[in-house]
């Protein structure tokens, strides 16, 4: 069992594949994909988010993703591909591991929002 944040990140990165912005764009084009921004609301307000992404801060993710809870967000469907991102990739890796633990199979870490915006600006 992990005993430090470093170990938690190592476990998360081992469980959740990291994808490129090109791979994410292809998954989004294919459909049946949920893009989740796990940054806090002030971060999203300051920089925007990927078009169509839902913003659920990492601290609320399990409450929105678990279909057995009254706070479940219907956008979360275990049959969908889920792409997560944050500011630099750490929170999205941990969030991806959490979703895997909740039974989501197709979960990917895009990394940081800057990885997406940098690719879009090219």
UniProtKB/TrEMBL annotation:
Protein name per Swiss-Prot or TrEMBL: Rhodanese-like domain-containing protein
Lineage summary: Bacteria, Pseudomonadati, Pseudomonadota, Alphaproteobacteria, Hyphomicrobiales
Pfam families: Rhodanese
Domain Rhodanese intervals: 29-121
GO molecular-function term, one example from the UniProt record: thiosulfate-cyanide sulfurtransferase activity
Matching CDD domains: Polysulfide_ST (cd01447)
